Amino acid sequence: MSEFKPLDPLLHSQLRLAVMSLLLSVEEAEFTxxxxxxxxxxxxxxVQLDKLEKSxxxxxxxxxxxxxxxTTCKILPAGVKxxxxxxxxxxxxxx
Length: 95
Description:
This protein is an alpha+beta fold. Helix content is 53%, strand content 19%. It has a single domain (14-94), classed as Winged helix-like DNA-binding domain superfamily/Winged helix DNA-binding domain (Arc Repressor Mutant, subunit A), CATH 1.10.10.10. Strands 1-3-2 form a 3-stranded antiparallel beta sheet. This is Transcriptional regulator.
């Protein structure tokens, strides 16, 4: 029987896990895309993205598209590693 490792509390949140899953499958994603796909409010998504950025899991770039603000997110190597470990640890609980 394998040893149970604690699940990363940062990734155990449904919204943060959804964001990380989406970012794994794309090079980068705009805030509006993440908001639409996760069906979250702008305020809640902003808070969760901030937590992921502070943890070093994602990078957030703020720029402008014409005169409109544009926020783009990208998963970082530490985020990929954390996500993969989370999935592995979750498999141990399931099996």
